[in-house]
Specification:
This protein is an all-alpha fold. The protein contains 3 helices and no strands. Helix content is 39%, strand content 0%. This is Transposase.
Length: 99
């Protein structure tokens, strides 16, 4: 079951393309969802991290590459609310006077 789930996420393939050697894709998908809902994955990852940390196998340095960090459109100066007001027509102050 773990190998089937790992295969799916490593390849990025659709569930329906899961190789037959892993069994029915619906069963694997349903098991993944059930384990996510009941907290099984959280428990597994917590235990693995705790063991790796105890063995000093984890480097807790965090690095963020600014190339992939994106701001939401509202953080980039987009208008926050309300309809856009139409531009008022401007007339030159030193233009010829209309008769």
């Amino acid at each position: 079951m773990i190998d089937a789930i790992a295969w799916k996420f490593q390849t990025g393939s659709q569930w329906i393309h899961l190789p037959e050697k892993y069994g029915n894709w619906r069963g694997v998908y349903n098991r993944l969802r059930m384990w996510a809902i009941d907290g099984t994955w959280e428990g597994v990852f917590t235990a693995l991290v705790a063991q790796a940390d105890a063995d000093e196998d984890i480097n807790w340095a965090v690095s963020v590459d600014s190339i992939i960090v994106r701001a939401h459109q509202h953080a980039a100066g987009a208008r926050k609310k309300g309809p856009q007001q139409a531009n008022q027509q401007t007339t030159p102050s030193d233009g010829p006077a209309a008769d």
